[in-house]
Design brief:
By secondary structure, this protein is of the alpha+beta class. Helices cover 37% and strands 27% of the residues. The protein is built from 8 helices and 14 strands. The chain has helices at 64-76, 99-114, 121-131, 183-190, 196-215, 219-239, 249-263, 287-297; strands at 4-15, 20-22, 27-28, 32-49, 53-56, 59-61, 82-90, 143-147, 156-161, 167-173, 269-272, 278-283, 302-306, 313-314. The strands form 3 sheets. Strands 1, 4, 5, 6, 7, 8, 9 and 14 form an 8-stranded mixed β-sheet that branches. Strands 11-12-10-13 form a 4-stranded antiparallel β-sheet. Helix 2 crosses helix 3 (121-131) and helix 5 packs antiparallel against helix 6. The protein is globular. The protein binds ligand DP6. Ligand DP6 binds next to helix 4. Keywords: ATP-binding, Lipid biosynthesis, Lipid metabolism, Lyase, Nucleotide-binding. Residues 170-300 form the Mvd1 C-terminal domain. Its EC number is 4.1.1.33. GO terms for molecular function: diphosphomevalonate decarboxylase activity.
Length: 315
C-alpha cells in the first residue's frame, strides 16, 4: 500500500490574519506574516481507503473538515477514492497553538504526493489555505508572508525570510475552562466592530514595518509591532456586535508582567491568538533569564521555549 508521511510545523503570526474577505475561499482581509516554530508540529500519513477517515492522535475522529477538504481536491483535480488520514499533533493541547495550521499544511503536502501532483509550493499554499487560512504559511520555514490577494489564484503564502534571526518565543500554557470561540467564527464576528476597518488599515502599514524589522533582525521592533497588532486584534473582539474575549485573568497577569520586564530593560513582548495563551517574544540571549522570571512568578503555569522551525518535510 502506498502511504505518504509528512511533517509540518505550527506557525505564530506576528502580523495576524483575523478576518475573511471571502468566506468560501478563505481569502483574508489582511496580509499576514508568521514565524514557523521548531517545537510544535503535526505528522500526517495518507493512504487510499474505502472511505475518508481520520485517525487523530490514535483515535477515530470526526472527519467532516478533512472530508470537505478532500472533496475540494476531488472537484479541483481528478476524482480519487477514499483516503485514510492518520495524524498526530505534537502540540500541547493547552498551549492554544493552532494545530489547524500544521494539520492542513501536512495534509496538503501528503495529498499532493499521494495524487502525484506537481509539488509547487505556491499551489500547495493556495490549497492549504482552503483547509485553514493559517495553514497556507506553515509550508515554509522561518518567516512566511501570506499575501491576501483578491481571488483564489492570488491569495497564497510564500517564504519571506528563510533565516534564523535568533528570535525566541516563550509559550505559556494557560488552561481555560472558558468555552472556546473557534477562530473561524471569532474573526467573522470581529469584522462587525466599528473599529475593524482601521485595524485592517493599520495592519497594512505594520506589515511593511515588520518586514523591514525582520530583515534588520531588530527583535525589539518586531516585538513592539507584533504586540500592538495582536492587542488590536483582540480589541476588535471586545468591540464587535456580539462581544467576546479570549483573555482570562492569567492572560492579563502575564501581559502585565511581560510589560514590566520590558520596562526593566529586558526584551519582552506578547502576542496572543484565538485563546487565552500568551507567547512572549524575546531573543535567544534573553530567553533563559526571562524563563526563570516567568517560572518563579507563575509556578502554576507551564512555559515552553520555541525557535524558528523548518518547512514541510516528507518522512
Ligand atoms: C489568530 O487559520 O485557524 O491564529 O482559516 O478559519 O481556519 P480559519 O482560521 P485559522 O485562524 C488563525 C487566526 C490566528 C492568527 C493567524 O494565525 O494569523
Amino acid at each position: 500500500m502506498n502511504e505518504i508521511t509528512v511533517r509540518a510545523h505550527t506557525n505564530i503570526a506576528l502580523i495576524k490574519y483575523w478576518g475573511k474577505a471571502n468566506v468560501a475561499l478563505n481569502i483574508p482581509t489582511t496580509s499576514s506574516l508568521s514565524m514557523t516554530l521548531d517545537r510544535f508540529y503535526t505528522t500526517t500519513s495518507v493512504a487510499f481507503a474505502a472511505q475518508d477517515q481520520l485517525v487523530l492522535n490514535g483515535q477515530t475522529a470526526d472527519a467532516t473538515r478533512v472530508h470537505n477538504f478532500l472533496d475540494m481536491l476531488r472537484a479541483k483535480y481528478d476524482d480519487f477514492p477514499g483516503v485514510l488520514v492518520t495524524s498526530k499533533n505534537h502540540v500541547p493541547t493547552a498551549a492554544g497553538l493552532a494545530s489547524s495550521a500544521s494539520s492542513f499544511a501536512a495534509l496538503t503536502g501528503a495529498m499532493f504526493r499521494l495524487l502525484e501532483l506537481p509539488e509547487d509550493l505556491t499551489e500547495m499554499s493556495r490549497i492549504a489555505r482552503r483547509g485553514s487560512g493559517s495553514a497556507s504559511r506553515s509550508l515554509f520555514g522561518n518567516f512566511a508572508v501570506w499575501n491576501k490577494g483578491e481571488d483564489d489564484a492570488s491569495s497564497y503564502a510564500e517564504s519571506f525570510y528563510d533565516e534564523d534571526i535568533h528570535l525566541s518565543m516563550l509559550v505559556a500554557e494557560i488552561s481555560s475552562a472558558q468555552k472556546k470561540m473557534p477562530s473561524t467564527r471569532g474573526m467573522q464576528l470581529a469584522q462587525t466592530a466599528p473599529t475593524y476597518r482601521s485595524w485592517v488599515e493599520k495592519s497594512a502599514g505594520q506589515l511593511e514595518e515588520m518586514k523591514a524589522a525582520i530583515r534588520q533582525a531588530d527583535i525589539e521592533k518586531i516585538g513592539r509591532l507584533a504586540e500592538d497588532n495582536a492587542l488590536g486584534m483582540h480589541e476588535q473582539n471586545r468591540l464587535c456586535a456580539e462581544p467576546f474575549d479570549y483573555f482570562t485573568e492569567d492572560t492579563r497577569r502575564i501581559i502585565a508582567f511581560t510589560q514590566e520586564c520590558y520596562k526593566s530593560g529586558l526584551l519582552a513582548f506578547v502576542t496572543i491568538d484565538a485563546g487565552p495563551n500568551v507567547k512572549i517574544i524575546t531573543d535567544k540571549a534573553t530567553e533563559k533569564i526571562l524563563l526563570e522570571k516567568f517560572r518563579a512568578n507563575f509556578p502554576e503555569i507551564t512555559f515552553d521555549v520555541a525557535h524558528a522551525g523548518g518547512g514541510l518535510e516528507y518522512l
